[in-house]
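Subject: DUF3139 domain-containing protein

B.,
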Amino acid sequence: MKFNIKKVLTFLALATSLAYFSNYMITRDYKKNEKYIVKIFQQDTGLHEKYGDIENFKLRKSGWYSGDSQEPTPYYYYHFYIAGSLKDGVIELIIYQNQEKYVVKYIK
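Prediction pasted inline below.
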């Protein structure tokens, strides 16, 4: 079996490009709603009761849901690792398109 270095290098270049592109797409959605997310982490009493003071948070995953017949309202969703003074965990934050309403779901 011949080892083709050109194919391996092409695969590595494509994999690296895909990784950078996916990271760009995740942070693009986050930058759009960053001020609302920080405000939610500072003011949400449910988060502070469960996790204490939010010391650090890291974006894990983000996306856009455009709606369907069961949930017609479009929204952005984010998964965050949260480090609080009481405990750490993962949450899903849903921010609806009009940014007047949000939902926090506790994953772990």
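Residues 5-43 form the longest helix (39 residues).

T.
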